[in-house]
Structure formats: structure tokens, C-alpha cells
Amino acid sequence: MAELSNRLNRLAPSATLAMSQKSNEMKAQGIDVINMSVGEPDFNTPEHIKEAGKKAIDDNFSKYSPVPGYMDLREAIVDKLKKENHLDYTTGEVIVGTGGKQGVCNTILALVNPGDEVIIPAPYWVSYPQMAKLAGGTPVIVRAGFEQDFKMTAEQLEAAITPKTKMLILCSPSNPTGSVYSQEELNALAEVILKHEDIFVLSDEIYEHINYVGKAASIASYPGMKERTIICNGVSKAYAMTGWRLGWVAAPAWIVKGINKLQGQYTSGTCDVSQKAAVAAYVASQDCVEQMRVAFERRRDLIVKLAKDIPGLEVNVPQGAFYLFPKCSSFFGKSDGETVINNSTDFAMYILEKAHVATVGGDAFGDPDCFRMSYATSDDNIREAMRRIKEVLAVLK
């Protein structure tokens, strides 16, 4: 019988994309759904970046681009790393890809062998364990719950390491929780990593600029860690460029060469127009980034205040990204007379069907006690969504 490969059958579909699709289907039926399920800024790409993309079209940047990316973009990324992160990289240590997601997956495929273990703190972005499985690796999930602000400790990391450990994946600021590791917390993790040979850190810093603590730290800045760290970043979140599909990796040259070899065999170079727009994003004024960050911080304050006013939800205060990850387990076992809430996926589906607000259950992120809401939407949408949620949760007994 014809069937899909075992490699593909090991993977689970993306829960975030599935919920977004269901939300869009309901909207198509004329239902007023507020979509808080997708990790995407609701702002438009800034005008000067769009103009750079248009100019690239007019200048006939429509050919195959170099696999690692155009030199002017890689130089702009090197300058950004030096100026903002105080990290010294060369253009040979940077490779551009089709979205931050490809950079993460390329890194895992380039370093993880079948049977290798990949330590992933939970809650995690839904794709991390699936990518580890795609490489033949074994995800090792370390629970970092609500009580510890969803951040893994050095002691937990040490306890999870075995002779098979190849990689730790960190995301700070975090999707789905909005938690941000301090430099001190990262230093403690780095000290554990450096005690073990041949363990690497994939540092997903895509939400770097959307933080409310002043500056997001990078584990690569700890002495000895630049050689062990693969930074994955891009323009999607900070510059509202999700659809431009441009990300990048900064890592030791031998790893970048490996990723270049891999990328050259399946996607090759990233879209010329997107690359030229990304150059403009990095070299021009960063005022647009700060304006969006300020708006996200205002929305963070608003959604936290409204969520804390809903009986039964436990709420922490996220320090970055644009997600709230409340604890909803007090509703498990309750019913409105028709629907019984058994887990966080049931909880999210109940909110979608009764309140017409799309969220994502924490099961998908490795934390079954919580659910994720994106506040990358208007203040009015946040107020209305939280009003609806409060109303439908009040009837659960």
C-alpha cells in the first residue's frame, strides 16, 4: 500500500497553524472570531522597508541569489551583532535563510545525528520537538512550569544531560510564555554547558527586540560560549515582516558551512527582494522597532490586567514577545452543561466555539496546565476578547 515516509509520520501537525485555520474557516462562515492564536505582529511592514523591496524589483533583483545570502545583508547582520549584542562575527559566520524557522531546522539537521538527545525546556515552541525528530534525534523535555516563570534552571539542565546529549534549545524572549532569561540565568546555564564537551546551544532570539526589560541577553556573550552557540534570528517579529520569509543564523564558520551545504541542496538562496528589504531594516533608523515595542508593552499591560480579573486564571507578567500564557487548570473537569473541559486543548476549543476567540491549548507547547493568547492585535480586540472569555468561563461549574 502506498504511504508516506516514516520520517513524515513521526511528525505532528502544527497546533498553532491548525487553530488559525479553524479560526479562518469560522470567519469565512461569517462568524466574528477574534484570532489570538497566531504569533504575528498586526502592524504593516514599515514604509522605508517596503520601498527598499520595491526598488529591488525595479533594479531587477530577480535572479538566483547566493546560497548564504547577499554580502551587503550579511555585513548588515554582522554590524547589528556588534552594535546591539557586542558579539564579533564575520560574514563567513552568518548565513541567510527563508525565515527564522528554516534557520532553526537547518541548525538541527546540521548537528543532530540519529539517537542524539536534544534538551528542550517546556513550555516550548511547537516545532522544536518535531524538528529534533525529523533529524532522528530524541527530544528530552524538561518541565519549567508556571511557578518558576517558565525558565529552566542550571540544576535542571545538569540533571537532563547524558552522554547522548547534543544540543540545548533556548528561546528568549520565549514563545509561548513571554519569559526572558536574565544574563545571570544564562550565565548559569552556560557554566553547565561548558563542563560538557560537544554540547551546543541553539539560541532562538527572534523576539529579541520585543522585550520589556531593557535588553534581551544572549548566551553567546558568555566567555567560551560563542563557539558553542548557534544564534537563530530574523526580521519577522521586530520589523513586522513575517511574510517576507527572511531569517538568519550566526554560528562558528564550520557550522555555517554545513548549513550552506544543506541549504544549497534544497532551497538555495533566499528571495532577492526580501534580502534587499532586510538590509534597509537593519541599516536605517530603528525608531519603527521601538514604536512597535512600546505598543506591545501597552497591550501586555492591558491583557495582564484583564486576565487577572477573570476568576480561575493564574497569570504571570511576561517580560517579552507578545504572548500571555495563563494557567487554566482550575477549569479542568468543569462543564457548561454541554461541554466538559478535560484539558487545555478542550479549554481552547471551548473558548473558540463559545466566545469566538481563537487561542491555543498548552498541550501543544508541552504545558498542559496553560493556554496561549497572542496580544499582537488591537487594544479594542484585546478588551472584547477578554470580555467574551470572562463571560463564557463564568458559566462553567
Structure characterization notes:
The chain has 397 residues and is α/β, with parallel strands linked by helices. Helix content is 40%, strand content 13%. The chain has 13 helices and twelve strands. Strand 5, helix 8 (183-194) and strand 6 form a beta-alpha-beta unit. Helix 4 runs parallel beside helix 10. The radius of gyration is 21 Å and the shape is globular. It starts with 5 loop residues before the first helix and ends with a helix. The mean pLDDT is 96.
CATH class of the largest domain: Alpha Beta
**CATH arch. level architecture of the largest domain:** 3-Layer(aba) Sandwich
Q: If you consult CATH, what is the topology of the largest domain?
A: Aspartate Aminotransferase, domain 2
Q: Could you give me the name of the CATH homologous superfamily of the largest domain? A: Type I PLP-dependent aspartate aminotransferase-like (Major domain)
Q: Find the count of extended strands (DSSP E, 2+ residues).
A: 12
Largest sheet: 7 strands, mixed
Radius of gyration: 21 Å
Assign an overall shape: globular
Category from helices, strands and their pairing: alpha/beta
Low-confidence stretches: none
Give the percentage of residues in beta strands: 5-15%
Task: Please list the strands of the largest sheet in the order they lie side by side.
Answer: 2-8-7-6-5-3-4
Distance between the termini: 49 Å
Summarize the structure.
The chain has 397 residues and is of the alpha/beta class. The chain has helices at 6-9, 15-28, 47-58, 71-85, 100-111, 127-134, 154-160, 183-194, 253-264, 272-283, 287-308, 344-355, 379-393, and strands at residues 34-35, 94-97, 117-122, 138-143, 165-171, 200-204, 229-234, 247-250, 323-324, 357-358, 360-361, 371-374. The chain is built from 13 helices and 12 strands.
